[in-house]
Design brief:
Structural class: mainly beta
Number of helices: 4
Largest sheet: 9 strands, antiparallel
Radius of gyration: 20 Å
Helix content: 10-25%
Distance between the termini: 34 Å
Strand content: 35-45%
Low-confidence stretches: none
């Protein structure tokens, strides 16, 4: 069964976030209470009905290239230890979105506050309840397409029985998709930066600490998705995952995917959050009749320089 074939098993989640929060958002800026603003860091937010995938990376020229663990310098390891990627259950109470049950590259929660959210057009604004920061998120343009949310239970090598990854997830939303693969075993420590610094030169420990992936990809459900941003440098340009090998099991509650990884037969087991054949991913949220009349009346000045911003 292909990823496209999964859509014949459509089952929309009965609970979850509203439609205006679904899809792929990129952060345009974050402004802090001290007056500082960052509009450069790559920050991606993909939202399924009941869980989120998040990726935060420096610019490509500031990311270390792919090397063996023994070849990375201490400074390069410090950069890798500050990459962020995670998946977590999300809970919407009508005003704020909170996260729990996360699978994260970092060993501590860097973003502990819930999000106060409001969206107008393609712009979703997030306020920290403490007033520490405000973030400007933009829904990325996409043709109408599927929404698939699968939470990863585990990935195993079928030939050896080895557990390769535990926790994570897959979100497909129109022209975009993202994958999180959690570590096979829990890592002790309170800070990834501290653990990586202590592990410099210890290739086995470094491999365990970085046995994690968060990747974001572009493409389509028909032609496949290719990785554009990732915590793993070697994944850039590669297919996010094979488009086939899927099977719906457990009375329609789970999905498995059988695939080959470096020549080994592997299996990923997922629980289903939602499988929906098509969403619009509309860039607009609409006007009230009164607001529409105001905009039309004042458009000579209001629309003088307007253009899409993503």
């Amino acid at each position: 069964m292909t990823l496209q074939d999964l859509l014949t098993h459509a089952q929309r989640a009965e609970t979850g976030v509203p439609d205006w929060m679904l899809g792929f958002f990129k952060r345009r800026s974050i402004s802090f209470a001290n007056g500082a603003t960052d509009s450069t860091t790559h920050v991606c937010w993909l939202q399924s009905r009941n869980f989120t995938i998040d990726l935060r990376l420096p610019l490509a020229e500031h990311q270390p290239p792919l090397r063996s663990w023994a070849e990375y310098s201490v400074d390069e390891l410090a950069v890798l230890a500050n990459h962020e990627g995670w998946e977590a259950l999300s809970e919407w109470d009508g005003e704020t979105l909170a996260w729990h049950g996360e699978t994260s590259l970092q060993l501590h929660n860097r973003w502990p506050e819930p999000a106060v959210l409001h969206r107008i057009g393609n712009c979703m604004i997030e306020f920290a309840p403490s007033g520490a920061y405000v973030e400007d998120w933009r829904l990325q343009p996409s043709k109408p397409g599927p929404l698939i949310g699968l939470r990863l239970i585990e990935e195993r090598n079928l030939d050896t029985g080895e557990l390769r990854h535990r926790g994570g997830g897959l979100i497909v939303c129109g022209d975009y998709a993202a994958l999180v693969l959690g570590r096979a075993e829990a890592v002790s420590g309170t800070s990834l930066r501290d653990e990586v610094r202590r592990a410099a030169g210890d290739t086995r420990r470094l491999a365990s600490l970085f046995n994690f992936e968060t990747s974001v990809a572009c493409g389509s459900i028909n032609d496949g998705y290719h990785v554009s941003l990732s915590t793993c440098a070697g994944r850039l340009g590669e297919p996010l995952l094979p488009a086939d090998g899927f099977e719906v099991i457990a009375g329609g509650q789970q999905v498995i995917q059988r695939l080959s990884i470096d020549g080994a037969r592997c299996e990923r087991r997922f629980t289903i959050d939602t499988i929906e054949a098509e969403l619009s991913y509309a860039q607009s949220t609409g006007f009230t009749a009164q607001a529409a009349a105001w905009y039309a009346s004042e458009s000579p000045t209001l629309a003088r320089y307007t253009e899409p911003q993503f």
